[in-house]
């Protein structure tokens, strides 16, 4: 399984993006600590490559997505004990999150937060009826819990 890596663009632009989104990251951190304290602690103990700091605790990774994932899927690289958090933004109608195995369609509006175990719950997005949708997806890759990596806990 391929491990997450820091891209050139992240190195060049991460600081500005991080500074502008500190309030969001603090809210996310407080939410995870309050709602999922055991998972929160385990995530903070997860490992990062040497020289990489944890930019959005308790998560190790953040993906910025444009559009929707319309094919039902499991996030196979996520750990089975942990949640991912998706925060959509943009101006759009539709794009509900379909948690197929839970028999639930969640109408997540811009700025809302949805948290679920993406490795164990089959999920997809319903089509947009209009507009454009982006999302931030926060997660910690399962490889962060392997003991045989050259890592630190920064």
Automatic annotation (TrEMBL):
Protein name: Fe2OG dioxygenase domain-containing protein
Top-rank taxon: Eukaryota
Lineage: Eukaryota, Discoba, Heterolobosea, Tetramitia, Eutetramitia
């Amino acid at each position: 399984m391929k491990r997450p890596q820091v891209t050139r663009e992240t190195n060049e632009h991460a600081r500005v993006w991080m500074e502008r989104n500190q309030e969001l990251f603090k809210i996310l951190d407080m939410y995870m600590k309050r709602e999922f304290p055991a998972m929160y602690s385990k995530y903070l103990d997860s490992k990062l490559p040497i020289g990489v700091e944890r930019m959005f605790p308790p998560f190790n990774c953040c993906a910025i997505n444009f559009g929707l994932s319309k094919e039902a899927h499991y996030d196979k690289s996520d750990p089975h004990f942990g949640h991912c958090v998706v925060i959509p933004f943009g101006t759009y109608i539709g794009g509900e999150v379909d948690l197929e195995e839970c028999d639930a369609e969640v109408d997540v509006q811009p700025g809302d937060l949805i948290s679920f175990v993406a490795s164990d719950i089959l999920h997809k997005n319903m089509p947009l009826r209009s507009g454009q949708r982006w999302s931030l997806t926060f997660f910690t890759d399962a490889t962060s819990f392997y003991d045989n990596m050259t890592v630190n806990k920064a």
